[in-house]
Structures are given as structure tokens and as C-alpha cells.
Write a structure and sequence with these properties.
single chain; 148 residues; alpha+beta; five-stranded antiparallel beta sheet; four-stranded antiparallel beta sheet; globular; disordered N terminus
Amino acid sequence: MLGDHITIGETLIQGQDKHGRVVALVIIVPGKGDGEVELKYPIFILSKDDLTIRMINSPKELDWYEEIDIKEGLYNGWDINGYPIELYMDGKKVALKFTSLQSSPTELKEAILNYARIMKPNSPFINSAQNTDVLGLFKAVEKHVNIR
């Protein structure tokens, strides 16, 4: 069960528990034939100006991004499954849309590794745990980037 409250929009299904916390968020984009793509959190947003990546765990965290930067196309990213997304403004609200129905997990992993190289150019990132999943890799890179 998704929760006590479900909102259905054109492309959004959101479930909330009795405390108002989002417990399920699915954005459905019709594909060709029987294919559909579901946006799954966390998502990873790449800033095109400095190539940093930020992990977003819920739609509420999208409010961090500024309207002017979004309108200039400064950000793109991926969901946890590697589907490419971009931010856009839906009125005054930050929204997401798929840019392709083709999953690109390798592209996402490369962007995460590039983020490590950019943030710590003199300290090579060594993936000692050999994280193959996106979330594990991102957490290892975040730890590496935040070591002083």
C-alpha cells in the first residue's frame, strides 16, 4: 500500500503516509508499445557549469534549484536506474522530465567518477569496494570528496 494519500496527476503518482512524508513517487511517461518508464528516486543532478553532482532523495529537495538556472538549461541528470532527465519550470514549481527512454547507467557512473576527479584533482579516487551499483558508487565518491 502506498500510504494514506495518493495524488494522481498527468504523469505523477505520489503516495504519502499519515505524517505527510512521501513514501512513493512515480512519474510515468508513456513509451512506445507497452513500454513505460518510471522515475525512481534518488535522482542525480549534474550542474553543467562546474560538473558537480547532487543526489536528490525527494521532490521537496528540488526547491534548492533557482528558476533562472533551470531556464538556462544548467542542469540535467539521471534517476537511480540511469534514465536521463532534465529540470524545467512548471509554473513556479521545479519539475522533471525524461530526455530519453533509453537507460544510461554507464553514463551516470562516468559522470559520478568525473565528479570525483574534478573535486579532488590531486587525489585519485580508488573504488576499493568496487561499487558497481550507482548508489554505492556515489556514496563512496561523496566520502572521497569530503575528506580533507
